[in-house]
Structures are given as structure tokens and as C-alpha cells.
Fold this sequence. Notes:
Layout (H helix, E strand, L loop, with lengths): L10 E4 L7 H12 L5 E4 L5 H13 L8 H5 L5 E5 L2 E4 L5 E4 L12 H9 L16
Parallel strand pairs: 1-2
Antiparallel strand pairs: 2-5, 3-4, 4-5
Amino acid sequence: VLEGKIPQPQAIYLDSAHEEDETLLEMKLAWEVVAPGGILFGDDWGLGPVRRDALRFAAAHAGELDDGFGPRVQPYRTMARFLPGLFVSYNSYQWFMRKVPDATPLMARDPATARHAVDSPVAWCWGDGFDGKDC
């Protein structure tokens, strides 16, 4: 550690306020500080506001998410993929996103585009632990 310089965290866990847009705000703030290659994760996927905000965040930051993270873990049969780069444990209902190691912040996408991606058909969803209607 360089004197006067604090290293970026490798992992940030969010136990959100569970209100619509609160999780999204917390994700945006955490994403700014988590290190490239770091993991942002949290709980309460089963709560609608948390799930919707996580889906919106993943849609807006798709180019910064490591979509290979889930397949590396999937052989252990613990995760499902809800959007590219967004994985959920069906044992604990925790969500996970890994920032690509060479991440550079993208310009924010139009919120309407991100919201449309969340409401679109889900050909990208996989996982053995969730019912197909969950995707």
C-alpha cells in the first residue's frame, strides 16, 4: 500500500434498504470503488425492488460485467444467470456481479434502454435451481 493511498476493495456486499431505486443507488456507488476484477454482491434477490434494481444495474453496465464468472462456478450447481454478468445463488438468493479485470467505466446508458432490457425475453437465462418462469 502506498502511503496515503487506500486500495480499492476486492469485494463489496450490499444488504440494501430494499426500496425501489435504493439498491440501484447503492450498486452505482459501490461499483465506482470496487476494484477491477472485484465482486459486488448482495442478498434478498427474492424481494421485487432488489431484483428489479439488480436487473436494471446489470443491463446498464453489461459491458463492465464478467459474464464468464457464472459458468466457472456453475459446475458446482449453485448459480443461475439472469442477465449477462448477473448471477444468483439458488441456495441463498444472493446476487453476484464481477467487474471485468480491465474495466473502464462506460458512459451511462439511457435508463429507458436498461429498463427495456430487463423487460425483454430472457434467452440469456440459465440455471438448474430456478423454475423457468423465474427468468
